[in-house]
Amino acid sequence: DKMDCNLFTMCICEPRQPHIKDNIQSVSGIVLDIDQPQKNAAVVELITRLEATGKAHIVYTTYSSQGEALKLRVMLPFAQPVSALDYGDKSAVERAAKLVGLPTDPASLRIAQLYFLPSCQPGTEDGHVVKVSESSEGWTLDCLPALEDGDRERGGAAARLRPHVPRHSAR
User: Fold this and answer.
1) Span 23-51, pLDDT tens digits
2) Which of 73, 101, 133, 143 is deepest in the core (most CB within 10 A)?
3) Pairing mode of beta strands 70-83, 115-116
4) From the CB of residue 150, how many other CB atoms can be counted at a distance below 10 Å?
């Protein structure tokens, strides 16, 4: 069951304090949540694009992935932790989304977001992807692509952060 899986975050919080934005001391990387299903070819293209940067990264399919409908998580670890103040607003995530080039869930914008570690549904192990780069060189905020003035209007990185649409289960 998905709820039995372990969680992680890229944030360091003040000791013995709730894991909320105001208590974050530093951030050790960016996590992009890609919930819009992707085909295998798009995942291969993404991994190729990330490999070409020469920077460390981890790409893995999430528990919700099924067959050719792959949902992903992309981790871009920083070379050194960045203070929450230096990490600043959401532009770092928007710039990383521009690099990745796939629709990114708004959960990626939440600095204190918790994520599930790689896992898959029973019987789907063959289609599960975990790709850890060979590079150990971390990212810096400076090496992320710059946002252009019209990125949002032209469907750039910020536009790829699609709005959350709540799902309602039929009971």
Assistant:
1) 999 999 999 999 898 988 999 999 999 99
2) 73
3) unpaired
4) 9
DSSP class per residue in 114-152: -EEPS---TT-GGG--EEE-S--PPB-GGGSPPPPTTTT
**In contact, 11 and 40? CB cutoff 8 Å:** no
Q: Which residue has the tokens 């893995």?
A: 60
CA distances from 134 to 39, 52, 129, 137 (A): 24, 12, 16, 9
142 compared with 148, residue with greater pLDDT: 142
96 and 144 in contact (C-beta within 8 Å)? yes
User: Under a CB-based contact definition with an 8 Å cutoff, are residues 144 and 79 in contact?
Assistant: no
Q: Decide: 25 and 14 in contact? Cβ < 8 Å.
A: yes
Residue carrying the six token digits 């469907």? 155
What are the Cα distances from residue 92, in Å, to 99, 106, 124, 127? 11, 13, 33, 31
Token pair of 158, please? 């910020």
